[in-house]
Amino acid sequence: MSEETLTETQPPVRQWPALDLAGTDFDPVLTALMREGPVTRIQLPNGEGWAWLVTRHDDVRLVTNDPRFGREAVMDKPVTRLAPHFIPDRGAVGFLDPPDHTRLRRSVAAAFTAKGVERVREKSRHMLEELVDELLQDGPPADLTRSVLSPFPIGVICELMGVPAADRHSMHEWTQLILSSAHGKEVSEKAKREMGAYFSDLIALREDSTGEDVASLLGAAVGRAEVTLEEAVGLAVLLQIGGEAVTNNSGQMFYLLLTRPELADRLRRDPAIRPKAIDELLRYIPHRNAVGLSRIALEDVDIRGVRVRAGDAIYVSYLAANRDPEVFPDPETIDFERSPNPHVAFGFGPHYCPGGMLARLESELLVNTLLDQVPGLRLAVPPDQVPFRKGALIRGPEALPVTW
Fold first, then answer.
1. Are 48 and 78 in contact (CB under 8 A)?
2. Strand runs (DSSP E) across 79-229, as ranges?
3. Across 285-361, where does the E strand assignment appear?
4. What stretches in the chain show pLDDT beneath 70?
5. Assuming Cys at both sites, which of 1, 56, 84, 88 could form a disulfide with 185, CB separation 3.0 to 4.6 Å?
6. What pLDDT score was predicted for residue 200?
7. Residues paired with 197 in a beta bridge
8. 3-class DSSP state of 258
9. Torsions phi, psi of 225, nearest 5?
């Protein structure tokens, strides 16, 4: 693009409050920003200043995969952000750039490959079947979140992480506090420190381990001096939190299936369509509030005729990218036949969610087990009476009352 066609007139800064949205309603502020243009400016409730926001699918992939935009530089800037906590910790994998980021993720890569995920498939299936058996034995009505959608992802991620069963309740409590801004910064940061201290002890105990779980892999990497204990702990906390976020995602998925019974009926009649259907549901579900972690432009970059200056903060919206009509025709429609479906629900580029394959496995097991073993599953209350989490960074129902 020539210098003459670049605009130096910056778009207005739009306030983006922390909304508590119910159901699968799409954020109205994000809708307005998408209509305003592909590159806009936002100010979030915490931090300082403003940041760029890109919403088109191609631009989101560009920013997330381009070394001209870095995470590590966020350390030195009080960037506008959604939550009062989540202030960057130096060395945390979410705020590292290659090659350090690559080195750290390599230490646990084996646990998140197809082989690593398959290692926990049968135990995960057995765990889920036990939960569903208990659900059926107790009889309706029931809270699907409390009885299945919460304990199942906790059990799976703790199994993969190598966290003993006796400690899983503590992990769940810490994660809920970390993923919420409702309790204030101090409570969330205290939970993060406590989880970090737990993983510090667990990883240190496994420096000579040959196990395949994440704590053992990290312990061995620390023992070989490939990563520091501090780096290993930061990665373990991030993976644990991310793994449990499946609770909220699956809650939204089942809320959608139960409020649109024709979708659930289609999946019951045609099991072969389920893998594609899960991908489409992942594309459609607005899994988070606002935006996640920012990046900093390391040099001047031109995006869609707008010049992003070196030092500027920039966010991407994966939710908006998944509704880009240039990539997903009729994006507001849930189309189980959609192909191709290059959604970015798990991110893109070097910071692509390492647990994406595990989350797909859990979604597949949940859909198969609940739809097949509880064929009459339906909401026990009107859709507008399903309570959704307040102050949560990851959206989802607080409870999902069901009957059958």
1. yes
2. 142-143
3. 295-297, 301-303, 306-308, 313-316
4. 1-8, 85-91, 181-182
5. 84
6. 96
7. none
8. helix
9. 60, 30
Name the token pair of 301. 């970059």
The burial of 115, by beta-carbon neighbours within 10 Å (0-12 exposed, 13-18 middle, 19 or more buried), is given as exposed
pLDDT at 5: 47
Check residue 81 and report its DSSP letter: B
Please give the DSSP secondary-structure letter assigned to residue 4. G
Q: Which amino acid is at 185?
A: K
Cβ 299 vs Cβ 236: under 8 Å: no
* CA torsion angle 175 176 181 184 (round to 10): -90
pLDDT of residue 391: 83
d(CA 120, CA 122): 6
Predicted pLDDT at 4 = 41
Q: Which residues make beta-bridge pairs with 143?
A: 401
Using alpha carbons only, what angle is made at residue 128 by residues 126 and 134, rounded to the nearest 5 degrees?
A: 105
Q: With CA atoms as reference, report the closest residue to 104 among 115, 114, 91, 116.
A: 91
pTM of the model: 0.91
Residue identified by tokens 């304990």 is 151
CB 195 within 8 A of CB 174: yes
| Radius of gyration in angstroms for the set of CA atoms belonging to the chain, rounded to a whole number | 21
Pairing of strands 39-43, 13-15: parallel
pLDDT of 318 reads: 98
Q: How far apart are CA 344 and CA 316, in angstroms?
A: 11
| pLDDT tens by residue, 51-68 | 999 999 999 999 999 999
Q: How many CB atoms are closer than 10 A to CB 383?
A: 12
Q: What would the two tokens of residue 337 be?
A: 């036949």
